[in-house]
Amino acid sequence: MPALKLNWTKGFILCSIIVLSMHQLGYAQEYPGFTRKAVVYQQDTIPYIELPTVKYFAPRIFNSRAEEIRYTRLVRNVKKVYPYAKLAGIKFHEYSKLLQGIPSESQKRQITRRIEQEIKKEFEGELRKLTITQGHILIKLIDRETRHSSYDVLKDFRGTVTALFWQSFGRIFGYNLKTKYDPNGEDYLIEEIIQLIELGVI
To answer: Of 53, 82, 185, 186, which one's alpha carbon is 20 to 30 angstroms from that of 108?
Structure first.
């Protein structure tokens, strides 16, 4: 009995889509300015409707309780730093565009110092609260959002000497500012989590 109800529901939805589409097709014929894609099927022209791609992730099955805990912790860390990485990407492109229009190196240095002060004022307090693991993930996600490693970003805005200094300094605490994001390799779980965040699933 439930199977019949499900089939009837599917049939009703399908008929509704066809009726609405045919109504819109008739509207298009009545008003020539309104057009819709169509295909020929068995010598009949029918409306062609493109549906958006829907991503689906099957529920994750864990082999052990420890694996589940590690995954849950990774989700928490990615959700913590992802907004900063997104904002870093927006700011990077915004500031890059701004600096490209300035020919004078002295003016660029002045603007770069101002940008640094703005970023420190807005984010330094929050970023200092990140754990070492969250810092590692943030460095990867900055590469994802800007298509440049944190080292490259520093080099672009502050010069090679500054970038080398911070790279050496970061190494002391276990950070590598040249870290690249690998969504198809070691960072596939992070990429999956980000897509789930963007879909509003987690």
So the answer is: 82
